[in-house]
Amino acid sequence: MQNRFVEASNGVCYAYRCFGDSAQTPLLLLSHFRANLDMWDPLLISEIAAERPVVLVDNAGIGLSGGRTPHTVEEMARDIHAFLRARQLSEVDLLGFSIGGYVAQELALQHPNLVRRVILVGTAPRGTGGDLALGGRARTSATKEVIGPKDLLSLFFPANPAGRERGVDFIRRIGQHRPDPDRSVSRSSWQAQIAAATAWGFPDPGALAKLAHMTQPTLVAHGELDVMVDAEKGRLLATHIPNSILRIFQDAGHALLFQNPEDFAAVVRNFLGAASLDDASATP
Question: How far, in Å, CA of 160 to CA of 168, rounded?
Fold first, then answer.
């Protein structure tokens, strides 16, 4: 899929890609740490885009987008809002993965009339302490100058034969030739992301209460074997977001959406198309 570009009112030229041609509300995907457009699983995208439009975007300073990567999640959300205004999108659904989930929460809280539904994958609420990814072996792997296939396997997928097999399949899919590839994420950009994630996790006893104002129907999805963000963070989100449902994937790691992309796409389609949360809770 060819890269597209749009100039926003904040002076940033955003790189993005669009998939699907349905007239339904588009689903905007917000990326994980150190991810550009090429890090989204093409199988997951094609499965979702069969029924609704999907939009991928490099946020400011990431990949082929201009500007600089902010050091706070609030600024990241403002940058995404500027992109949506530039694209003249008046309503979107959001899927935020990992740090993208922080941005999705902030955007949904700040612009409730813009965001229809939210999917939060492998992510955490504000003010609940640093995630596992900010320390130990996870941080060592995630902050290498070059993240290799073995690092992706250890960070994203369970350390068992089935997890490794699914991880290798994912790495092969994202390694497929793209006629219009994105640019890698610079060191200054991913260091800014670390600063933003650290600030997001800084203990704040009142932060969870603010989630009561996030009233959009929300799906919280988490892998029980996640080594980047503890599954308890997903449970906290679902407890404090009033109009939410929780799906814990028992045999999945951080990248549960890439581990079983066809199954997860079915969950996404069911949630976005359901008339009520009771309907969305049904296994597709």
Answer: 12
CA 133 – CA 116 distance, rounded (Å): 30
State residue 259 phi and psi, 5-degree precision.
Answer: -70, -40
245 neighbors 277 (Cβ within 8 angstroms): yes
Task: Report residue 41 as tokens.
Answer: 């699983």
SS3 for 140-154 is HHHCCCCCCHHHHHH
Q: Which two tokens stand for residue 194?
A: 């670390």
180-218 pLDDT tens trace: 999 999 999 999 999 999 999 999 989 999 999 999 999
Give the number of C-alpha atoms closer than 13 A to the C-alpha of residue 267, restricted to the C-beta side.
26
176-to-155, 167, 247 alpha-carbon distances in Å: 21, 15, 30
From 136, 22, 29, 39, select the one nearest 84 (Cα to Cα). 29
pTM: 0.97
4-281 to CATH, choices 3.40.50.1820, 3.40.50.1000, 2.40.50.140, 3.50.50.60: 3.40.50.1820
Cα(58)–Cα(253) distance, integer angstroms: 24
Burial class (CB in 10 A: 0-12, 13-18, 19+), 7: exposed
Which of the two residues, 127 and 284, has the higher pLDDT score? 127
Please tell me whether residue 27 adopts helix, strand or coil conformation. Answer: strand
pLDDT at 133 over 80: no
- Describe the strand order of the beta sheet including 27-30 as a list of residue ranges: 4-7, 13-19, 54-57, 27-30, 92-97, 115-121, 218-223, 244-249
Rounded to an integer, what distance in angstroms lies between the CA atom of residue 158 and that of residue 167? 9
* Residues paired with residue 36 on neighbouring β-strands, in sequence order: none
Region label for 259, one of left (φ > 0), alpha (ψ between -120 and 50) or beta (otherwise):
alpha
- Show me where the domains of the chain are located: 4-281
